[in-house]
């Protein structure tokens, strides 16, 4: 996974708008509450070979995270080999002298843990979370990866193909992927290697050789260029003894580590970069300035104006560009301050009918406002609270705490900055904000990046592309490591004694008005999650009004009878809390995360939002336009189109048979009365569940529930009941032709089982074998063996009366038929032959481990308990889950696959550039319905406009 702190933009189309015309005047905003984050307690030492070791104990968890951070990133890519550090990240998951390829997955996924890695501009990090008894094994495995990696031609070629598919998926198939991954760094930097894309290019990846790869490992993957970070439940003395045993013998090379010496010169004038891309539905504009490095004293001060500009719905860019002027569908900023001098970014994706010139002018006006006068005290405090509360939420998990230490070490040179940075942010003054805005964001030193559709390129104008430099391969003369013969390999260390998890004990009570309240004290960290679940979702959408329930939920924070949306956002954010709302197929929810001492005030706002939404026409119109613009973007993404198409294909003619979030035609028809009708019918206390988890006792939870929701009136009569859903068994094969798509999305989908089915546990084990995790069968066949996709998998949703099974992968367009063959073959293989004992045990561990990690976060526990309450599952299932998973037999997996995963009874949806795959696809699906994307109508049973 390649990452950059520049921005990983998610087009979040939330909208704040004024509430109803008549409302009670609000008192002046109270001073923002002070948010505090407990420091990460850790110890450190350095081995004689230069390896830095950091550890932090947490006896409350049964798990441990093992992380190794190498000070090598995309900036260190050799000349003519952009994307090389990222490509190498993939190689480290393969063989070592004593570990065959994929062993790291056997040691993590197969025991209920997980592993991953990411490549950033300045570093590459490898991290695992496993049950604590596996710590010694993971330390051994990481020492193997550091000291004896095997690099061979076959694995090199396969992983290079996987990286190409990642590039196609993240960059070429995303309408804005080129802008953020390629153009922003290219336009911002002239000299420093930060200008090169971390994910590389097809040409430079193809130019790489095995000698390049071996030389890169020799140069950078060494103990004096690495840090080992371990957080979790372990014995300190034993841990240090293992570190000495496994990492101590690794030798420090004599050659010095090669470092980047290039320096970006100061920018002396403004510039403009024009970029274009296929399938770009809305233009975008970004402004960048050169900024300081992460360790610079000005770095904390520059992060605060970033938060003022774009953190939350009360931010300046959102209020100005999205809410007031309505010229943008998303506005963003980012203080990207890596280990060497970085950049500051402000940008927008424009709304329909608005151009980049409007966006640039509006962005510049907000920058000038920062420079003209310091922010008010309340706004400054709110921005700081959002930054600090965000850090608190990230540190809820052991791997989050490990990441905080590693990131500070790699970007600022000192892990302690993970703790001191928060104090530095707290110390930023209003005058500091104004000063750094004036110093770094001068109008005459900005770069303007304008990004538009290829159709807007001037006639005769062609893209200027600089060919990658022809650089000869490295001449590697060092030792070459090979996998030892099976009888000569060193075995992994034994597994230690298991650490038993402490399960939360939910307590429930029903208020007099019928509201079911569930409280589970689950954490000492000062966080509480509150989840209000209402038993209505897309199934309740009126005929022809797909997305009505979704829009009803989305509009809840957009104004009540006594608060405008701006007041809601500013009051919540001043508390350091977060508030959101959404709807799915069978339920709607309002979610809150807050500090315990701010919970009463935050829950009062949450209750107001749930009970008293205004649904004002002006607010709805704003939200409608944002949603329509969002759909324009989604309708250019193969994966999104495939996901939208699944429900109309599988559940046609039933209450599930439409796009849950709506279509352009249905969203255009929604009125305030439609939303009010849904709210009046379903949002009532006797049709709702409130779950509170985290640092809260049952007595505190019930008292807060009564205080916030006790006056919620229960209407006469029972709420409308959800109807039974019986989908048609007839499968369809649909291909949606999206010319210019960077990839094809391949989906196989069919009806499944309800949550109450006796086959539920065999079903989730079956799905785990087929498509959950890196080592699932689909990912093994499609990614690992053939390099056809960045990832392939499957999911099983079990609802009240039915469910859905989905298998999916994205691949280069010409490979879509082959990927479809592989998905079908794996579904059939499960039905033909039961899994072996080792595979069955490993895939059960994936489920058990994932369930345990979800229980460890307040929001994850709230989601599990809310789901149990929604579907009538007893809370004893928390303790019974592991045993029920372990009890599933191989024959039950085979029988479930035979009865419900027959590929001949499944529908097929392929979305991509049809000229590359349609003819081959027709031979596999003779009844294939081919629909040009321009003619797609997801409201029609035929999926075509006018038919």
Structure overview:
This protein has 947 residues and is α+β, with helices and mostly antiparallel strands. The protein is 39% helix and 16% strand. The chain has 31 helices and 23 strands. Helix 24 (760-771) packs across helix 27.
What structural class is derived from the secondary structure elements? Answer: alpha+beta
> What's the number of domains?
4
What would the principal axes of the Cα set say about the shape?
Answer: globular
How far the N terminus sits from the C terminus, by CA atoms, comes to 43 Å
Number of contiguous helices = 31
Query: The CATH topology of the largest domain is what?
Result: Cytochrome Bc1 Complex, Chain A, domain 1
Low-confidence stretches: 5-31
Query: What CATH architecture label of the largest domain applies?
Result: 2-Layer Sandwich
Which CATH top level class of the largest domain fits? Alpha Beta
Task: Say which CATH homologous superfamily of the largest domain is assigned.
Answer: Metalloenzyme, LuxS/M16 peptidase-like
How much strand content do the residues show? 15-25%
How many β-strands, per DSSP? 23
Keywords:
alpha+beta, Cytochrome Bc1 Complex, Chain A, domain 1, 4 domains, 6-stranded mixed beta sheet, 31 helices
Q: TL;DR of this structure?
A:
This protein has 947 residues and is an alpha+beta fold. The two termini are 43 Å apart.
Give me the secondary-structure topology.
Blueprint: E1 43-46, E2 52-57, E3 63-70, H1 84-91, H2 103-108, E4 114-119, E5 124-131, H3 135-147, H4 153-172, H5 177-188, H6 202-207, H7 210-220, E6 226-232, H8 236-247, E7 271-277, E8 284-290, H9 299-310, H10 316-324, E9 328-336, E10 343-350, H11 356-372, H12 377-394, H13 398-412, H14 417-426, H15 430-440, E11 447-453, E12 507-510, E13 516-521, E14 528-534, H16 548-555, H17 565-574, E15 578-583, E16 588-594, H18 599-611, H19 617-634, H20 638-650, H21 664-669, H22 672-682, E17 688-694, H23 698-709, E18 733-737, E19 744-751, H24 760-771, H25 777-784, E20 792-798, E21 803-811, H26 816-832, H27 837-855, H28 858-870, H29 877-886, H30 890-900, E22 907-912, H31 918-924, E23 929-932
Parallel strand pairs: 2-6, 7-11, 13-17, 18-22, 18-23
Antiparallel strand pairs: 1-2, 3-5, 3-6, 4-5, 8-10, 8-11, 9-10, 12-13, 14-16, 14-17, 15-16, 19-21, 19-22, 20-21
Helix pairs in contact: 1-4, 3-8, 9-12, 9-15, 10-11, 11-15, 16-22, 18-23, 24-27, 24-30, 25-26, 26-30, 27-29
